[in-house]
């Protein structure tokens, strides 16, 4: 009996320690570059779940759902920090939130009907787009004022749906959209961080519910959200995010973006070609 307990403890450690490391890397990169953790968490967690023998048809769904659940906590932390600097455009957040919630929840339900192969292709393509954008250092310029509530709601639906299918907080979509509509970069980043909360909440709930009929509630796994992995991700992220933020003031931002662009290009190509 003792032997089996030891082996079970080793297996548990071999599963959760790499996830803790993934959370550390995601938290460090978030603090360093101001990016959401989804672009790091999703491919790394999918690879780990595959190595652990999880069903190939649900690997990406679990990675996406668990990633969005982790963003709930990182988003709350970002909101507090940005609110202290009065940088969040709360009226814009409120006007976009209904559309974001609906789009994100719908995206999670749609993902349940898509195969892992299709989700991998969607994520891989998006990773290459992010790599191209960051590698070229392209930034959206101001072209118009923010639309009325109808336009913001529609934008929220689109941003939410895409973010849900990618398992991200939506900052890489919200920031260019807001800057295109004459919002300064500082307020665009802060407002996008606030938009990340309804994306994460609706996405996590959507993946949990849509996965119940497929995977049910198995121990620490609720639908497509793995609560054990979630706890490890949050722990690692909280530990390393402050260190990343500290190093962000010591390293050339252009070099950082080039590094991350290369990393995203490698991840995108890996997911699309292998």
Structural description of this entry:
This protein is mainly alpha-helical and 274 residues long. It has one domain (12-273). Helices cover 79% and strands 2% of the residues. It has ten helices and three strands. The chain has a three-stranded antiparallel beta sheet with strand order 1-2-3. It is globular, with a radius of gyration of 18 Å. The N and C termini lie far apart (41 Å). Mean pLDDT is 85; it is low at 3-8.
Helix and strand composition category? mainly alpha
Label the overall shape.
Answer: globular
SS summary, helix count = 10
Physical arrangement of strands within the biggest beta sheet: 1-2-3
Helix proportion of residues, in percent? over 70%
Uncertain regions spanning at least 5 consecutive residues:
3-8
Question: Domains counted in the coordinates: how many?
Answer: 1
Tell me the number of strands.
3
Report, as a whole number of angstroms, the end-to-end distance: 41 Å
Which whole number gives the mean pLDDT? Answer: 85
Report the portion of residues in β strands.
Answer: under 5%
Q: Write the element-wise H/E pattern from the N-terminal end onward.
A: HHHHHHHHEEEHH
Query: What is Rg?
Result: 18 Å
Main β-sheet description = 3 strands, antiparallel
